[in-house]
Amino acid sequence: MRVRRAARAGIVILCAGCGTTRMTDTTRAASEMMLVSQAIDNAVAQIDLTELQGKPVFLDTQYLDGTVDKGYLTSSLRQHLLAHGAVLMDERPKATYVVEPRSGGVGTDKSSLLIGTPQMAIPAVVPGIPSQIPEIALVKKTEQKGIAKIALFAYNRQTGRALWQSGLVEANSTLKDTWVFGAGPISRGSIRKRTELAGEELPTVARLPLPFHLFPDTTPPAPEPPAVATVGATAQTFPDSDRPSGPVALPAVVGAAVWVGPVVPVAAPAPVAPAGGPARGSPAPTPKGL
After folding, report:
1. CA separation for the pair 50, 225 (Å, rounded)
2. CA neighbor of 144 nearest in space, from 247, 262, 29
3. Which pLDDT tens digit goes with each residue over 153-186?
4. Other CB atoms within 10 A of residue 255 CB
5. Residues 6+ apart with CB under 8 A from 190
6. Are the CB atoms for 112 and 143 separated by under 8 Å?
7. What is residue 51's DSSP assignment?
8. Alpha-carbon distance 131 to 120, whole Å?
9. Is the pTM of this model over 0.70?
10. Segments making up each domain of the chain, as ranges
11. Which of 133, 138, 128, 58 is nearest to 100 (CA)?
12. Contact present, 94 and 18 (Cβ < 8 Å)
C-alpha cells in the first residue's frame, strides 16, 4: 500500500516538473520607456505657452528627427499648445506663426555599485565546458536616470521676425534598485508609486532595516550661471514680430537713404532781406509821393 502511494506521488512530481514557462520581453524595457516618457512630461510641463494663446500656429518637428520617442514628444507638445489656447494648423501656409522645437538630449543613463564578487570566468575543469563563478553580491545597487532637454521658439512666418522663445528646459526621472544579500530588487524612484520588493509594492507602514545609509542620495549642486549668457537660455517675448519686413531709413548712412513712408511736399523757403537793403531778385520799392 505504501509502495503504491509512493509511486503515485513520484508520478505526480514528475508530471508537475515537466511543464515549462516561456517569458518574453519587448525590444525596450518598460522601465526605460517610463523613464524617458516621464522626463519628457516633466520638461514639457515647465514650458509656458501663454504668448501663443489664440494664435494660429504650425508645429514644425523636422529638427526632432533621430530623437528617442519623437512621436511621444511631438504629441505632448501638440497637447500642451492646445491646452494654452493655441490654434493648431496642419499645413504650414495656413498658419501665421511657426513653432520650432529642438532636442538637446532625450535618453537614459545607468550606473551601478557592487559590494561583493562580480561574475568571472575560470579555467575549464573539463575540456570544452567553460566554467564561471556567479556574482556574489553582499550589497548591490543600480541607478537609472531619464533625461530630457528641449527648447522651443516661435516666429512670424510672414515677416520672419521672432515672437517668443521658451529657453532651455531640462528635466529628469529616476529609478533605483537595491539588492541585500541576494534579496531584491528593492525598487524605488520617481516612476514608482511606492517602494517595491521583487515587483510587489511594500505597505507604507513597513520599516525594513535596509542599509540605505550605505548609498546616500547625493544631489549635485546647482550649476553656476555662465559668465556669458547663452543664446535661447531664458524665456523671452519679441513684441515686434508682426511688424512688416522691408527697407528702413537709416540715419547717418553715407548715400541716399530709403524712405518707405508717404511723400510730403515741402514749400520753398521765403527770401530773407539782408540788412541794409532789399533781397536780391525782389522788386524795388515804390517811392513815396509818386
Report:
1. 26
2. 29
3. 999 999 999 999 999 999 999 999 998 887 878 8
4. 6
5. 38, 173, 174, 175
6. yes
7. G
8. 9
9. no
10. 27-216+232-237
11. 58
12. no
